[in-house]
Amino acid sequence: MQTAHQPIQTKAGGAKGRQAPHHRSTVRAAVLEDDDSLHKIFCTALQKEQVTAIPFDSYLEMAMAVRAGMIDIALIDLGIGNEDGMQVIKEVRAHSALPILIVSGRTDPKTVCAGLDCGADDFLRKPFDVSELHARIRGMVRRAAATPVAAEKSSSIKPVVIDGVTIDLTVGVAEIFPLKCHFTDRECHILQILLKTPGKAVSRESISRIIFGKGWAPNTRILDVHVSNIRTKLKSIGASPRIIRTRRNSGYVINANVAAK
């Protein structure tokens, strides 16, 4: 195991017989999983998508590698020892936009919401179908290879005012002075999609395919969790819950009363 005094490097085996793939690609994936059988499944799936898998034994090790710029995407199991995976995701997200997929057997809605709210991009429940894992990884690779969402928030995206709430997606903030709330990159992307057509509903499928690509599974409720988190944050600063409405059989619609700031 690496320590804070040792350079972080890809492992070539260990006490549990793990071995990182020899293939080198432009996308490097952190794999944080202590179940050997699942670890092998993850690494095989990553290799199939031409991704270099880098195993880690602890959240701390992975966070160090992210800070060192060695990781492009991350697959994280929340059940690693007594460490707080949620807190590490928050820490990683504070200075990195890399795609994060939580793979966990903790499937209660509270945990799923907490993981996404900490900054994870997606949540895959155990047990899972391997074909779904492949699809999620492909989506992560595309997002890692593309321009990060944060960079997409160019100065051309002007702040808007909706029912007295100023929303500035260039910094991911909504404000009703003096209160502010902060959005994750994924939440900003959802708001950006809805703000393109204020007053018109955008289907869940359309938003999901833009956000998650082919990694989107029709039966997942991940998008709904993200929208719920946006609403909760807006409510925390006194904004109307009707800024984003659910239109039955149509999708989500943002309030048409939008003005440029």
Brief characterization of the structure:
The chain is α/β, with parallel strands linked by helices and 261 residues long. It has helices at 36-48, 59-67, 85-95, 109-118, 130-145, 149-152, 185-195, 204-212, 222-236; strands at 28-32, 52-55, 73-76, 100-104, 122-125, 160-162, 165-168, 173-176, 179-182, 244-247, 251-254, 258-260.
Task: Present the secondary structure layout.
Blueprint: E1 28-32, H1 36-48, E2 52-55, H2 59-67, E3 73-76, H3 85-95, E4 100-104, H4 109-118, E5 122-125, H5 130-145, H6 149-152, E6 160-162, E7 165-168, E8 173-176, E9 179-182, H7 185-195, H8 204-212, H9 222-236, E10 244-247, E11 251-254, E12 258-260
Parallel strand pairs: 1-2, 1-3, 3-4, 4-5
Antiparallel strand pairs: 6-7, 6-12, 7-8, 8-9, 10-11
Helix pairs in contact: 1-5, 2-3, 4-9
Notes on the structure:
- The chain is of the alpha/beta class and 261 residues long.
- The protein folds into 2 domains: 28-146, Rossmann fold; 152-260, Winged helix-like DNA-binding domain superfamily/Winged helix DNA-binding domain (Arc Repressor Mutant, subunit A), CATH 1.10.10.
- Helix content is 38%, strand content 18%.
- It has 9 helices and 12 strands.
- It has helices at 36-48, 59-67, 85-95, 109-118, 130-145, 149-152, 185-195, 204-212, 222-236, and strands at 28-32, 52-55, 73-76, 100-104, 122-125, 160-162, 165-168, 173-176, 179-182, 244-247, 251-254, 258-260.
- The strands form 3 sheets. Strands 2-1-3-4-5 form a 5-stranded parallel sheet, with helices on both faces. Strands 9-8-7-6-12 form a 5-stranded antiparallel sheet, with helices on one face.
- α1 (36-48) packs across α5 (130-145), α2 (59-67) packs parallel to α3 (85-95) and α4 crosses α9 (222-236).
- It is globular and about 55 Å long.
- The N and C termini lie far apart (52 Å).
- 34% of the residues are buried.
- The model is unreliable at 1-24 and 147-156 (pLDDT under 50).
